[in-house]
């Protein structure tokens, strides 16, 4: 055992050494490969639009950023799991409920895997889903407003990593746990992990018209780590595949102890079968506690509901629903090709890349050729399900995408490259270096039956000398390659927000026409909306004051308020009366313990101000909205708590 430990440690240190020597590639070698026509391939002239949208996860920023391809220009950072002072998300009263969880208000998460909704196996540009790893959640972003409109917490999960991938008609978005834990959670010794901890794989149904999410069932699996997942498609539609590591069920010094088994598994889950089982009354309702947060576009407000139970399924109760495919060795990525036939398991510590065949898997199941079982779940024979392997393609394979022309592209973290290989013949046809240490890669539509195989974006973990230095923390980065030819061509580096993990891309034409320009004021059902200046007012209710305020170029109504007292809780409800595209107003109040608001045309937003000091305090518009933006300002007079200054407000005249 000691010896094994030593040799594993030795192997790991070789890997570390390889990583670092690769990262010291000098600047000489890195630009040498660029051909002369590169600039024009990424140049999008002023006023022109990009051909693709790319939604790149923000990793530990908890957000999702929107870029254009091929330019690499950043258009927007969509706040999802983290508070964002730029947009008031998670600060204003309307969106605070979005960040509610069973652990209370959690204003941060670690977001990894965006995935765009699909219809008939093709991306449809309606929504993008993304996972929060840390406090397990899945969010849905509406691609007509580019706003987060729903977040559902995942109970019985921990480190929601094999998530949030969608099935080919968006029947489900899936959330697999990275860490196995006691289910239900309870106080128990960590050393008793093995055999007692469990891993949940959660299937969240998506209502086809509005995308409303609901947990349909949770499969309670053996206590492995469920790393990544992808849906079957085409012939394998109805199945879902999850890579596992730590089939050793170790709970300490994981870098060694979870790397003992020569093979871990890909879990193949026949979700259609389980769906049928639960539709016929199968499964066990378990007490749970999780938040379901929904943003309503007509009230411009979110509500948070705590849910109290979840339907769990024991895989042994549904024979034929779950199988294990042996896969070397601590696989990370789990990727399915556009035809649905090939399942690529990228063993991080394996020399070769393993590709499983869906057809062979079905044959083996049919013939009941099993190599044993794990906690009662049948294990198939490696050789029986193997479609082929790519021999020694690189070091440290992580993720694979497809171009729809029979080619696959795999990232190699340690040898820091993207390798192009052919499905079916398994031969390597090209390789290009990445700067440096690439994680995921993305081809628009790459997780669907119809990829748009023109570009691949590699998302790198380390940049070192690629950009101007910015102190110890330097930017993370993406790289764009042209893959329209036989050989890949590096076109562009561009920095990213947070750490990019996965991304999802779509042709601009799929999303652009659906993009909303403003909110209709008439449809505004916010309970504190003032839809005209005539409706503006200030209402006191004990120590609570509600200000119904409006904005229009270039003033607030009212712009002077008196009669506020120290110790009051003042709610500013601001309605933006504009009905023009791209005319938001902002509002900020001195000393408010929150962010500004940024209010879109037709929208109402609210912040709370608790004045601590007597005086006359200004507020102003934060968004440069007109030539007279700088005049868009007002005052609030704050009197002592026991003063009898009457409550009055005005616009365009003095308060007498
Ligand atoms: Cu970064 Cu998909 Cu979370 Cu691999 S994961 S890199
Ligand atoms: Cu309104 Cu600046």
TrEMBL record:
Subcellular localization is given as: Cell envelope
InterPro entries the record matches: Copper_CuA, Cupredoxin, N2O_reductase_N, Nitrous_oxide_Rdtase_Sec-dep, Nos_propeller, NosZ/Cyto_c_oxidase_sub2, WD40/YVTN_repeat-like_dom_sf
Q: Give the main location.
A: other
Enzyme nomenclature, EC number: 1.7.2.4
- Any one cellular-component term (Gene Ontology): cell envelope
| Signal peptide start and end residues | 1-22
Q: Which UniProt keywords apply?
A: Copper, Metal-binding, Oxidoreductase, Signal
Q: Does the keyword Signal apply?
A: yes
Keyword Signal among UniProt keywords: yes
GO MF:
copper ion binding; nitrous-oxide reductase activity
Q: What is this protein called?
A: Sec-dependent nitrous-oxide reductase
């Amino acid at each position: 055992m000691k010896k094994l430990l030593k040799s594993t440690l030795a192997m790991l240190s070789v890997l570390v050494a390889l990583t670092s020597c690769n990262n010291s590639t000098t600047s000489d070698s890195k630009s040498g490969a660029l051909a002369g026509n590169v600039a024009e391939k990424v140049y999008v002239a002023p006023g022109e639009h990009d051909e693709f949208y790319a939604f790149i996860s923000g990793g530990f920023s908890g957000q999702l950023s929107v870029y254009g391809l091929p330019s690499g220009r950043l258009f927007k950072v969509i706040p999802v799991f983290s508070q964002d002072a730029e947009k008031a998300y998670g600060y204003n009263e309307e969106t605070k409920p979005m960040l509610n969880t069973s652990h209370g208000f959690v204003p941060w998460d670690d977001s990894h895997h965006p995935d765009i909704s699909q219809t008939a196996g093709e991306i449809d540009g309606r929504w993008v889903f993304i996972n929060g790893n840390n406090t397990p959640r899945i969010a849905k972003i509406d691609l007509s407003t580019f706003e987060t409109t729903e977040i559902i917490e995942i109970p019985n999960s921990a480190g929601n990593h094999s998530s949030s991938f969608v099935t080919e008609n968006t029947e489900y978005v899936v959330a697999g746990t990275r860490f196995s834990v006691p289910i239900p959670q309870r106080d128990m010794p960590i050393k008793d992990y093995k055999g007692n901890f469990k891993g949940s794989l959660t299937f969240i149904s998506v209502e086809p018209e509005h995308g409303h999410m609901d947990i349909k069932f949770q499969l309670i699996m053996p206590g492995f780590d469920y790393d990544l997942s992808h849906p079957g498609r085409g012939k394998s539609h109805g199945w879902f595949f999850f890579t596992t590591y730590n089939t050793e069920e170790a709970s300490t010094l994981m870098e060694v102890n979870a790397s003992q088994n020569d093979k871990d598994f890909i879990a193949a889950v026949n979700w259609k079968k389980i769906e049928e089982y639960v539709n016929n009354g199968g499964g066990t309702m378990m007490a749970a506690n999780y938040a379901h947060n929904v943003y309503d576009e007509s009230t411009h407000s979110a509500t948070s509901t705590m849910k109290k139970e979840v339907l769990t399924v024991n895989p042994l109760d549904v024979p034929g629903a779950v199988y294990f495919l042996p896969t070397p060795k601590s696989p990370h990525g789990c990727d399915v090709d556009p035809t649905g036939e090939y399942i690529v398991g990228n063993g991080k510590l394996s020399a070769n890349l393993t590709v499983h065949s869906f057809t062979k898997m079905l044959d083996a199941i049919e013939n009941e050729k099993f190599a044993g079982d794990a906690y009662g779940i049948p294990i198939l024979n490696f050789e029986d399900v193997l479609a082929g392997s790519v021999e020694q393609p690189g070091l440290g394979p992580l993720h694979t995408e497809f171009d729809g022309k029979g080619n696959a592209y795999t990232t190699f973290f340690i040898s820091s490259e993207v390798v192009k290989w052919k499905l079916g013949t398994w031969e390597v046809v090209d390789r290009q270096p990445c700067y440096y240490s690439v994680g995921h890669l993305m081809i628009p539509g790459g997780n669907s039956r119809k990829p748009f195989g023109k570009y691949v974006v590699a998302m790198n973990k380390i940049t070192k000398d690629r950009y101007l230095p910015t102190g110890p923390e330097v930017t993370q980065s993406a790289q764009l390659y042209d893959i329209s030819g036989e050989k890949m061509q590096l076109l562009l580096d561009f920095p990213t927000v947070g750490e990019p993990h996965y991304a999802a891309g779509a042709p601009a034409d799929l999303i652009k026409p659906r993009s909303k320009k403003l909110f209709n004021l008439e449809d505004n059902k916010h309970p504190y909306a003032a839809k005209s200046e005539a409706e503006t007012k200030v209402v006191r209710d004990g120590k609570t004051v509600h200000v119904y305020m409006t904005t229009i170029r270039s003033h607030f109504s009212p712009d002077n308020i008196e009669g506020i007292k120290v110790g009051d809780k003042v709610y500013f409800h601001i309605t933006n009366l504009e009905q023009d595209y791209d005319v938001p107003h902002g509002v900020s109040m001195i000393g408010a313990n929150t962010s500004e608001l940024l209010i879109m045309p037709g929208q109402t937003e609210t912040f709370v101000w608790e004045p601590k000091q007597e005086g006359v305090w200004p507020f102003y518009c934060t968004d440069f909205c007109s030539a007279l933006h700088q005049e868009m300002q007002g005052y609030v007079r704050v009197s002592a708590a026991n003063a009898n200054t009457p409550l009055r407000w005005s616009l365009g005249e003095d308060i007498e």
